[in-house]
Amino acid sequence: MWEFIEAYFIRPVYTGEGYNIFNTIAYAVLFIVGLYGVKWLLKKWKIKIGKKLFYALLPYLVLGGLVRALQDAWVVKHWLLITPGIYLMMAGLVIGIIIATGRDLEKIRKVGWVLAAAAVGLVVAVAYSVAFNLQWLLLIVGVAVLVVVLLCMVFRKTLASRENRVVALGQVLDSVASAIPIAFLGYREQHVVSALVMQPTPFLFPLVKVTLVLGALHVIDKDKGDWNWLLKIAIVALGLAPGLRDLARVFIGV
Length: 254
Description:
about 250 residues
């Protein structure tokens, strides 16, 4: 049993081997359990689950993605900065800030953007000293924004709210920031399911992502309660954070 755990869960964290079918399933289950834990904790702290929470947590997703890229660049190095550790670390950081700010969502949001801005500055500084692939960064961002604009024109009802557009942008950025580097820059996909989708061509990935996120938003918006916002936050976390990580990696050149 220990050999199995070491081979499929511990070794991939330390060696950077990425994901396998076993840790992928385990992380998915833990993520779902974590959502229920977050809901319980927010209720216990009497924090309203809604739009203000959505935007209060957004900068921490930016921060997490950029910190993960800095770990890839060896600027900072620790197992807590690799999945699943990065999620635990960010959750601990947010909980600490929630407690320190007295559960004030506006203060939580402002602190988050200060930290995210510092991470952006560090990424730019590292990129400037290493590669500074600005042309690829602009291409990826430009394509992602263009795709979202086109989606907003076609799927006006689904993407009517700004929050839904943020969710869509996060997932589109993740797919484009994966597809373009894999197609043109020699990068490889670490996630098992994503790698299977990309086997015919990396550009199949954005199409699948767009289809899934539009379908998910259509279903989620039928529920106007807490889960509407929690699931949107979860989808943003699974899109924007890894998307920014991939984008920053290309920018830095690692």
